[in-house]
Amino acid sequence: MVRRDDPQPLEHRAGLERLVGGTGIRDRRRVGGFFDRFGDLGLDRLTLHEVRGDPTFGRVSRHGAMALSWSMDKLGPMCRSVEDCALVFGAIQGADGLDPSAVERPFVWDAEFDVRQLRVGFLASAFERELEFDDETSDAERIREREWMAADLQTLEVLRAMGVELVPIELPDLPVDALSFILSAEAGAAFDELTRSGADDLLVRQIEDAWPNVFRQARTIPAVEYIQANRVRTLVMREMERILEGVDCWMAPSFGGANLLLTNLTGHPAVVVPNGFASDGTPTSVTFNGSSASRRSWPWRALTRRPRDSKICTPRRFGKTFEGSTLQRSNVM
After folding, report:
1. What is the pLDDT of residue 256?
2. In degrees, to the nearest 5, what angle opens at C-alpha 288 toward C-alphas 286 and 292?
3. Residues 225, 218: contact at Cβ < 8 Å?
4. CATH superfamily placement of domain 27-169+240-332
5. Among residues 73, 160, 182, 286, which one has the fewest Cβ atoms lying within 10 Å of its Cβ?
């Protein structure tokens, strides 16, 4: 039995594979782990008051883990601090000969690096957006959205007070949302036996968007459309390389537009850092993404971090500085 003492409501609870690690961290064990694909990282940002290091695709072997999307799945640390994440990642990263997507690349961690030397992008439209609600949005949801927005804006002020150079950027003007079915197609293949055997009927959650129905519906996705979507995915990767040429990393709200889906498609690394609490007791957070990914197109072979002299491991280093700043502890946390 996993003991749960976190404050989130049941409708926001994370999946079991991340719940176990998160509970261990809350019980004062320092580290846990997670298996990230589109949606998991965003959900945990809402529910778990821990730091997560989401590595570049291919940095950690996935051997022995249950696949959902072979071209998106990533393993990474979930710890009580950014520095803990860096220490754990340093121990588990690299090729093991059992996962052909895992590669050997340098990993440099310098917790004392002065982040004022970095140019940090931020998704201007996500931080400056006007909140819009429809008639079905509950009062609680409206309050939560406003509180998350306030925490995001205060985070920008904290960074400016730290002397960080913030550079407004925008994500590629490409149909990123339309590419989400790539995950569904790969998940349908990963759970092919479960679906064809009828064992998916044994799963309790059978609502329209539950995984059993995603697996079933995925069998109707044409192979041509899957390939075409991955061609657009390659364009997104190339455009991100162009956009990020002038920054060392970038930050985004945890649910800031297409950033979550986009970085799952491109394989960019991320560090998710708590930045406060909402009035209902659930934690808020902000994400720092790394700007260095391979220029080669296919993620399951090539999205590995390029050595960039002293700026290797930029998102973790930057997250560590933000996490430990006096302003962040007194005003945001």
Report:
1. 64
2. 165
3. no
4. Amidase signature (AS) domain (3.90.1300.10)
5. 160
